[in-house]
Amino acid sequence: MAEIVIDGKKCTFEGNKTIIEVAFENGIDLPHFCWHPELSVAGNCRMCLIEMGNQKKNPDGTLAVDENGNPVIAYMPKLQIACGSKATPGLYVRTNTPQVIKAREAVMEFLLINHPLDCPICDEAGQCKLQNYTFKYSTGECRFTENKNPKPKRVSWSDKIMYDAQRCISCSRCIRFAKEFADQPVLSFINRGDRVYVKMATDCKFDSPYSMNIIDSCPVGALTSKDFRFKSRVWDMAFNDSVCAGCSRGCNIKIGTRNNKILRIEPRNNMNINRYWMCDEGRLNYSLQNENRLADSKCKNVQVEKFDDAVAKAVQLLKNYKAKDILFIASPKATIESNYMLAKLAQKSIKTQNIVYIDYTDKNFGDEKLRTNDRAANTNGMKIVLPNIKPLDFDDLKTKVQKKEIKLLYILDSTLSNDSPINEIAENAECVIAHCENESQLSKIADVAFASASCYEEEGTLVNEAKRIQHLTPAIANRENIRTMGMKLGRFEQFGTEDDKWGRSNLSDNRSDWRILANIASGLGSDGKKYLNAEDVFTEIAEINPQLNNISYQILDEYQGLTLGNRIENEKKYRIYKSNNVN
Amino acid sequence: MNNRKNTEVERMSLAEKAYLPEIARGLGLTLRRLFRPKMTRQYPEERWQPLGSYRGRPVLVKDSDGERCVACGLCARVCPALAIEVQAGETDKTKERYPAKFEINMLRCIYCGFCEEACPEEAIVMSPNYVFTTRSRNKAILDKEALLTPAEELKERLEFLKQFKNQ
Ligand code: SF4
Ligand code: SF4
Ligand code: SF4
Ligand code: SF4
Ligand code: FES
């Protein structure tokens, strides 16, 4: 393990690293625009200038020390960029000397010469590196009185991305991302000097499934998302941690909400899974959460007065049928907790092994980057609590339903679309109990349709395709979770009253799937266990399931998830990189 | 003061305790005021026209080509009473955005004028309007149409801002 000294602090590192990387790993944030931990080094913004040097040597070859025994260091007279200089053992770095501060102020002044005063109309404002650094590292004065260079504004790069050349600080992060990660080298600088800006090659498309990552890696507001443009100021939004449910990769995300509606989703750094990126599909498929929700449970498309009535109805229906007439459909999209409660209800209360699941494999979705073919986020987690489960065979079920061998369908899978073949089968079944997130064909015909919480409202655990178990936490409030969500909402929702048009009125009555199942089980006379929250359920699973022994929500949060079968001692804790961090 | 005399009555002199001289003194004051110029007016028939420095109900300034506001939301951010709600929309004009929705909840507003101070466009200003009553809570939430006021009507305030604030 090698060592360098940054501002008097000893920083250790391994392997071939640059100074800025070593500093970051050791908790020191150096200002930077063009450096991105996952992209190649461009070294063109000059924001990361530092002073560096080595210990002087005496003529006899020994290291020089002063009279107090402190090392004498010969700093290079010229400043160096921390992102482009290798950390070599024994290096001394100073990041706060008058010379460095003056250089940073000069860099900031140059950057702002041609930068428009766009903050009031710029989506990046409030999380903009340039804005933050202006406060922290610039004098706030501009000696330039000439006109700013005109450059193109509102250039459409694709149906998802808009480019504004005036705001661009020519850091080349987008160019490098397109070339190095998206494998679509279609972006490049044109012109020279202060007229330089990024242009997309003519007759080319930037339609990579990962294209939108350039929006949040852009340090300024030069790149904006057409989906989000002007929907909200970032300081009015709440950003809560979550896990993408789009496929079995389980990318870590942040969900930006205002007025309890999702406005945008962005990736969250997790070195074990998605590193810094996510796919556009995962970013944009939140509309089901915002629209057409089933907000209250229904019996035969009639809204029940209270949730308990729906539970009582379901209990009564389940009692009416023999165990062999009932088929349970588990869900590879639901959490471990929910699938466990389903297993418990089926195996302990009803005493049947009739449990299947719907397979969501889509051969066209996966690639060798992040996206995987399995579009369900928790297939592996479901198989932990239901090890012998088989995928559902629609034709087989259809005949069984017609022959009245199966009379009652219990469907935990709460995101079934209207074109799923299950709808037709359900119509022919004698009785259907379904968990539904949205108003759908199924929610209309079901004898009991429970309004169930979506993956954005629920707490639980998910296991991805690489067997990494992650803690899913809610980002949207409903009546069930408002007690814990209250202060995690945006500033308007936190303080709104009933007389305000915004705020937390109109909360829906969606319940976590495991809670619905636990209520039914106790209605059928279960072992009498009470669960206050998802953690109680998980603790119970972790006790009986050897794969999950010693795992708790707290440990999962600490390590950003754990790989099952890997000893905790071998897990590494990483420092989280936030592209728009104020540092 | 002698702290053994705790109450007002204990502290009063004999003449004060007799009341009558004090009543005469009070009547004298009233009599003298009667012949001085009047400070009050017959509101609401007679109305006072506030000066430019007066902070009345906040309104949006409307120029010949529409509102000045670019829906930056800074007024909403600075408002200590959370009275303002802005929703931006996109336009083809050079300024790119406009307020698709702009509401001020006058039940929340405390007339502090912070919104005016924060606005980078001088688009929200404190008007001379100090009369505000409604018959229902909902009507106290003013929308963009109710807030937009032609710049000519706000001349004095804009002049005042130019002179003393936004120099
Ligand atoms: S658009 Fe953004 S990421 Fe691309 S060069 Fe300009 S500032 Fe950098
Ligand atoms: S790769 Fe999968 S998990 Fe990651 S963002 Fe896309 S859909 Fe979501
Ligand atoms: S005057 Fe003060 S309280 Fe009223 S809207 Fe403006 S900032 Fe808010
Ligand atoms: S601060 Fe001014 S420009 Fe910004 S939203 Fe308020 S009124 Fe409009
Ligand atoms: S971050 Fe080092 S030069 Fe840009």
Keywords, please?
heterodimer; A: 583 residues; Ubiquitin-like (UB roll); six-stranded mixed sheet; six-stranded parallel sheet; 18 helices; elongated; B: alpha+beta; 2 domains; four-stranded mixed sheet; 29% helix; binds iron/sulfur cluster; binds FE2/S2 (inorganic) cluster
Care to give the gist of this entry?
Chain A is of the alpha/beta class.
- Strand residue percentage of chain A: 15-25%
Cofactors and ligands: iron/sulfur cluster, FE2/S2 (inorganic) cluster
Main sheet characteristics of chain B: 4 strands, mixed
Quaternary state, please?
heterodimer
**Residue share in β-strands of chain B:** 15-25%
Q: What is the molecular shape of chain B?
A: elongated
Would you state the CATH class of the largest domain in chain B? Alpha Beta
Q: What is the CATH third-level topology name of the largest domain in chain A?
A: Rossmann fold
Largest interface: A-B, 21 and 23 residues
Give me the number of helical elements of chain B.
Answer: 7
CATH architecture assignment name of the largest domain in chain A: 3-Layer(aba) Sandwich
Q: Poorly predicted ranges of chain B (pLDDT <50, ≥5 residues)? A: none
Q: Which structural class should the secondary elements of chain B be placed in?
A: alpha+beta
Helix share bin of chain B: 25-40%
Number of strands of chain A: 25
At the first level of CATH, the class of the largest domain in chain A is Alpha Beta
- Span between termini of chain B: 53 Å
What would the average pLDDT of chain B be, to the nearest integer? 91
Separation of termini of chain A?
27 Å
Count of runs of 4 or more consecutive helical residues of chain A: 18
